[in-house]
Amino acid sequence: MTSAARASGNMRTVTPYDDVERELAVLLRRARTMNRDIAVDVHPDLQPAAYALMSRVAELGSVRASDLSDYFGIDKGGVSRQVALLERLGLVAREPDPDDGRAQRLVLTPDGGSRLTVAREGRRRRLRAQLERWADGDVSALGALLSRFNREMDSVSGK
Fold it and tell me: In 77-90, which positions are buried (b, 16+ CB within 10 angstroms) versus exposed (e)?
């Protein structure tokens, strides 16, 4: 039993899986807060959901809005509203899809790319400051375990 379970008066057996689930929940809450903060770093009017879409556009170079909808599991109307915000803020633009004359692809604008780069550099500095006290081997192990976890999650979800 963990000390947290004893302190709370919960006498059931706590497994390592319970610990992982609890710590993942904390990590996810912190990640949502970090996404909100970095979205504001990119642009004061940028919403976290739009930041996530923008990040995916940056990752792929160009993408159809329908592919974003599929990737994030968001209805097309929600993606459309976020893309409209990104366009209004001058962070993404639409270009003709070379494979389909009827379709358009989203790309980062030069301003969107530079804002995203600056915001991500700030995030990396903050993360590095948090991990500076850790041994290099521990940082490497964390990175390797997170990578493994994400790969296995991708294989389960099919993404």
Answer: eebeebbebbeebe
Give backbone dihedrals phi and psi of 63, rounded to 5 degrees, phi first.
-160, 150
Helical residues (DSSP H) of the chain, grouped into ranges: 3-7, 16-42, 48-60, 65-72, 76-88, 110-131, 136-157
Are residues 54 and 42 in contact, defined by beta-carbon separation less than 8 angstroms? yes
pLDDT for the residue numbered 135: 97
Query: What pTM does this model have?
Result: 0.78
134: how many CB neighbours lie within 10 A of its CB?
12
Distance, in Å, from the CA atom of 58 to the CA atom of 62, rounded to the nearest integer, reads 7
pLDDT tens profile 63-109:
999 999 999 999 999 999 999 999 999 999 999 999 888 889 999 99
Average pLDDT across the chain, whole number = 91
Query: For residue 111, what pLDDT is reported?
Result: 97
* Complete domains list, the chain, with CATH: 16-133 (1.10.10.10)
Cβ 41 vs Cβ 119: under 8 Å: yes
